[in-house]
């Protein structure tokens, strides 16, 4: 056989049959090659893998970031859409306004966060402009300038997590948007920092009169909540500890005013903290005007009206910071109209954070509010479910058994029992009948719980609430398949079976109010109130530990240390 005929025959053998070649490489690896018969389809390695459900997350704030950090992304096809490619530790924004902490110290890139998660998460820097729940689609648009091609795109979803936050509420007050600073995000804090320096630089110009100096250096804070109070305190420390050393000629002309429409500042705190804050501000020379409502702002004057007398007065200002609450974003308002919630102020969800009217849409954080179902709406169904023998009355055993599920399904009942100092359900039973052995009917059952719904309260729009909601929803997503077969929630009183998950329950871990001068007030669980210098160190430790990464934790602590040693930086950069 000639050499050419041998190779011709060999080539026909290779083309007509499967051929496997194993070659040992120098590194010890093995290469395998398999060629299928002519016309046969090569099997796909992913043919038998079930397709993952698509989860779209809108936002990168507290709720969304907490959700992404705890979510097992290997179970889903996860896509994140937000106009900001970072997470910001917003409780430290007032510190950024005065250079106590640098802006970059409190932000963490979203891509750094998601790359550490199990599974793959895609991030798109864009703004959601429309939610189409009927077709399970979101429409987005990039805010990046000078893009080549269209910056608009759409994403399909199986589950949508809406955590876009909210915007500042101006109450349609004339001139606010044009002439006031807000303190909602990092860019706001940076603008305030530059404006404060500008005010001092302008005030020391030779052409500025004494009266003009007093107007330029009048800093007005509208809103006596935690953000407004903390900014006023930070600004006072900045002026006292740093700026008057650099601008000594105007040290006696600086004035800080806090305007509050209510009767007290920090009125969501314990009254002891509110009183302490007002007294400290008075000692520090910060003017607190309560019972006043701002009715207009221009570039030089702020106009307000006293509620008690109706008197209107105008005060010159150099800078106004508006911090009076939040309102719904336009994209959420449009979505609410689409699903029949146009009359509400925020998205309504049930106790499992699912948007009412949309089975596969969840809402977290400032853009939503949980509508807690009232027990008196279900009281008849609850009684009938508890009355197992259909006798028309409940024994103490039946009463205690149903109360366990009631407390899980209706958390206001637990708050009611604590308020009444009732140790357990048997104590409530004794209060009803005076004797443990008796049975009760439906009227007595209603009487026992008729006041429980008075404990239903809306959750505050805070980072603490949003973070807990994100962690809760992530756990639900991680155990969704398991919960289908093994539900862990309370009993369904209207129907059979149990709910898949326990309803969300907020656990209040306390709140801080830094008041300047290395003093902080704290309201902690158990009706514990702490105020003073020792609480400031507790604030330092808690806020350092709550940072989203070790990088930001180190940066924030180093900024605090730098400020103690060198003071704050007043450069206009």
UniProtKB/TrEMBL annotation:
Q: Which gene encodes it?
A: LOC106756246
Give the family this protein belongs to, as stated in its UniProt record.
Belongs to the NADH dehydrogenase family.
Topology of this chain in the membrane:
Peripheral membrane protein
Compartmental location: Mitochondrion inner membrane; Peroxisome
Cofactor annotation = FAD
Q: Which Gene3D superfamilies does the UniProt entry name for this protein?
A: 3.50.50.100
* Full protein name: NADH:ubiquinone reductase (non-electrogenic)
Residues in EF-hand domain copies? 374-409
**EC identifiers of the protein:** 1.6.5.9
Principal location class: mitochondrion
Q: Which UniProt keywords apply?
A: Calcium, FAD, Flavoprotein, Membrane, Metal-binding, Mitochondrion, Mitochondrion inner membrane, NAD, NADP, Oxidoreductase, Peroxisome, Signal, Transit peptide
Where does the UniProt annotation place the signal sequence?
A: 1-32
UniProt-recorded Gene Ontology molecular function terms: calcium ion binding; NADH dehydrogenase (quinone) (non-electrogenic) activity
Q: Which reaction does it catalyse?
A: a ubiquinone + NADH + H(+) = a ubiquinol + NAD(+); a quinone + NADH + H(+) = a quinol + NAD(+)
Which organism is the protein's source? Vigna radiata var. radiata
| GO annotation, cellular component aspect | mitochondrial inner membrane; peroxisome
Domain of life of the organism encoding this protein = Eukaryota
Note the Pfam families from the entry.
NDH2_C, Pyr_redox_2
């Amino acid at each position: 056989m000639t050499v050419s005929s041998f190779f011709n025959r060999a080539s026909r053998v290779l083309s007509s049959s499967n051929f496997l070649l194993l070659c040992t490489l120098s590194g010890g690896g093995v290469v395998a090659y398999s060629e299928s018969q002519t016309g046969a389809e090569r099997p796909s390695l992913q043919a038998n893998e079930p397709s993952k459900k698509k989860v779209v997350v809108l936002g990168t704030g507290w709720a969304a970031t907490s959700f992404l950090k705890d979510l097992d992304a290997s179970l889903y096809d996860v896509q994140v859409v937000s106009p900001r490619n970072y997470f910001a530790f917003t409780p430290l924004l007032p510190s950024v306004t005065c250079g106590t902490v640098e802006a970059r110290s409190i932000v963490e890139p979203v891509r750094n966060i998601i790359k550490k998660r199990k599974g793959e998460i895609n991030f798109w820097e864009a703004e959601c402009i429309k939610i189409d729940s009927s077709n399970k689609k979101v429409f987005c648009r990039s805010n990046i300038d000078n893009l080549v091609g269209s910056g608009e795109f759409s994403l399909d979803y199986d589950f949508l997590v809406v955590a876009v936050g909210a915007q500042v509420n101006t109450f349609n007050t004339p001139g606010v948007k044009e002439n006031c600073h807000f303190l909602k995000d990092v860019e706001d804090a940076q603008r305030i920092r530059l404006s404060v320096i500008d005010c001092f630089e302008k005030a020391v110009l030779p052409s500025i009169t004494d009266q003009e100096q007093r107007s330029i250096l009048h800093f007005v804070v509208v809103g006596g909540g935690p953000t407004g109070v903390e900014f006023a305190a930070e600004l006072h420390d900045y002026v006292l500890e740093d700026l008057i050393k650099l601008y000594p000629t105007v040290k006696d002309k600086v004035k800080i005013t806090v305007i509050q429409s209510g009767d007290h500042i920090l009125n969501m705190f314990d009254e002891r903290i509110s009183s302490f804050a007002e007294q400290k501000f008075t000692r520090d020379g910060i003017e607190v005007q309560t019972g006043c409502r701002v009715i207009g702002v221009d570039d030089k004057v702020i106009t307000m009206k006293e509620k008690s007398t109706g008197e209107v007065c105008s005060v010159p200002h150099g800078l106004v910071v508006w911090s009076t609450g939040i309102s719904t974003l336009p994209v959420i308002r449009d979505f609410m109209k689409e699903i029949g919630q146009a009359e509400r102020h925020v998205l309504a969800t049930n106790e499992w954070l699912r948007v009412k009217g949309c089975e596969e849409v969840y809402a977290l954080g400032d853009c939503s509010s949980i509508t807690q179902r009232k027990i008196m709406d279900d009281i008849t169904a609850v009684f009938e479910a508890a009355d197992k023998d259909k006798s028309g009355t409940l024994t103490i055993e039946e009463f205690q058994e149903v109360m366990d599920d009631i407390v899980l399904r209706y958390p206001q009942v637990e708050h009611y029992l604590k308020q009444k100092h009732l140790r357990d359900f048997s104590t409530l039973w004794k209060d009803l009948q005076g004797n443990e052995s008796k049975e009760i009917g439906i009227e007595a059952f209603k009487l026992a719980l008729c006041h429980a719904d008075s404990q239903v309260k809306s959750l505050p729009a805070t980072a603490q609430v949003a973070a807990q909601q994100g962690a809760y929803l992530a756990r639900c997503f991680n155990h969704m398949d398991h919960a289908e077969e093994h539900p862990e929630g309370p009993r369904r009183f209207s129907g059979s079976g149990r709910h898949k998950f326990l309803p969300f329950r907020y656990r209040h871990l306390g709140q801080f109010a830094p008041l300047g001068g290395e003093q902080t007030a704290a309201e902690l669980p158990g009706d514990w109130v702490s105020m003073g210098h020792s609480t400031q160190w507790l604030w330092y430790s808690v806020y350092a530990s709550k940072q989203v990464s070790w990088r930001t934790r180190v940066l924030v602590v180093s900024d605090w240390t730098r400020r103690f040693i060198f003071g704050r930086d007043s450069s206009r950069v």
